[in-house]
Amino acid sequence: MNHRGNISEPAPPETGRPLRSECGAILLISLAALLLRAAVPDRMAVEHFDEGVYASNWYCQDLDPPEQFPDRHLYAPPLLPELLEWPLSLTGNAASVMWVNVAAGTLMVLLVWWTTREWFGPAAGLIAAVLAATSDYHIAFSRAALTDALLALWMLAGVYAGWRAILSRGPIWIGAAGLLAGLAWCTKYNGWLTLAVTGSGAAGWLLVSRPHSVSWPGVLLKWGATAAIAAGLFWVVAVRGLADLGGYAAVAENHARYFTGLSGWRLNVLQHVAAHRVLDGWASWLGLAAAGLLAVILPAKRFTWNGLRGWLAIAAVAAGLLAVAILWGTTVVLFLIAAIGLLIRLKRLRQPADAGGAGAETDRGTADEPRRLAGWLLAAWFIGLFIGTPLYHPYPRLSLVWLTAAWIAAAWSFSRAVGEAAQPGRRESPALRRLAVGGCVIVLLVLAGWRLAQSDRAVAAAWDDRTGMQSAALRILDRLEEESSESGSTAGGELDAVIYVYAEPALFFQLEAARGSTALEYVTQPAGNLDLLKPGATDPRVATYLLTGPHADRSGAGEALASADARLLAEFDYRPSRLVRLDQSPRGVLESPDPPIEQIRLYRIHSGDSR
Questions:
Q1: Digit-coded pLDDT (tens) for 27-41
Q2: What is the pTM of this model?
Q3: Three-state SS for 335?
Q4: Which of 88, 244, 333, 385 has minimal Cβ neighbours within 10 Å of its Cβ?
Q5: Closest by Cα among 176, 211, 179 to 371
Q6: Which residue(s) pair with 499 in the sheet?
Q7: What's the angle, vertex CA 38, arms to CA 600 and CA 591, rounded to 5?
Q8: What does the longest C-alpha to C-alpha distance in the chain come to?
């Protein structure tokens, strides 16, 4: 029987202040995360189609609407583009836009640690931080000017704040949860998933676990207040400015084109798995092995460095996980560990709070409700996005938010299952320990060497050279400078050329960023269509050029160019990175990792009487 006469809010679990050794460990992990994301900065550059859309605000001052790449609102809300504009305007260095997500990706590791620690204890927190810090997948997107690394940061912060809001009496955490969920929504149009996770997770907690010390109306009111704040922020920042651009209906219509539904779910899952395998590398393998070691070294309930026991268990856990990761990818391993662990714990979470007994997660009654709620939030996140993400076109970056839940769920499972399995038992001889560890090392070295030999690439995909579009832009400007010198001065005064860029926002960005590297005076314009090929559409007094690239080729622009009054001047080779190629065919990249040579074409446009 539930007694609700004196309802008391459950408080968050007492995990204690981090010990000095734990603080030192997380600082080292965070430093490693920063170094991995900031390594070889000369390989980072705007290259992806969407990067060009987001990063070009500063170069669109004279467009209509101003300070916004054409149709930018169809791709993302304004938060990330405006954040990218700040370092560019302050430094004038085009490479500065890449550091926004480097910072966000590093902060993500700290947030993963703190959230997991608060939910499931210090050992789980450190394990999750290691998995996040060493994730090649997260590293790759932290080195790109895309929305997803920042979205994952806001979303995790919003879910954590939502957990706090449900458990707290005051309005501070409600306001924080609403603000953070709103920031996620203003970063990417699916940022509302923050509210979906907190809402569905809280519903599972209330309906299945049935916490007897919690007021249902109170929880619903808190979630409703959080949702209202988030929706209000989203309307002010994103929706209000869409009135002259077709409203939010135009955004929804555009996104509906990429919804594949259940019919494409299985194939989309396979594409996502292939993308994770392409981006998998040595950092993820080492991180997974380190997570297994930590799970054995750290006691499950209290953090201390004094717990090294069971060398055979250490070797077996690390070797087994790393072998599977090298053969099939670390994400497959994380999925299996997280899914099995969640299934086991969901059976316990299904036990009503007043049932007690062995079915409960612990025997502390209402004191354990915060952890039960955290478990339901994590289950809603992991299961919901595993089902929902493949309903959409399999852009690899979309699974980054799901991967966040996989880190935490795997760390939770690691910290309990593996740690408990590695209990001290009979002592093995030193020779047997050395034989076990040495044998595992040899097997792993053979597997790692075989996998690297298969990939035919010395550099992991996360650190691919992504300066191909930047290099092409410089070569294009050199060619135009030669063209201008050969033709002499034009009737356009000081203006040497007008350059239209069709369907390649990243090339537009790089041409604008390269202004200081050439004496050519030019104007760059993004072309949303090929109407400029019509007679009289361009000014005959100024040399007018058109640039097309791989996206134009795939859109069938060749026919329009063949029938237009346009002369092909030059073709420039461009090798896209694996991160860019993944948007087209992850399985194709997996089967053929060497990048194909794409073509960027330069045309001279003639207008009527100007030949």
A1: 999 999 999 999 999
A2: 0.89
A3: helix
A4: 244
A5: 211
A6: 524, 545
A7: 50
A8: 94
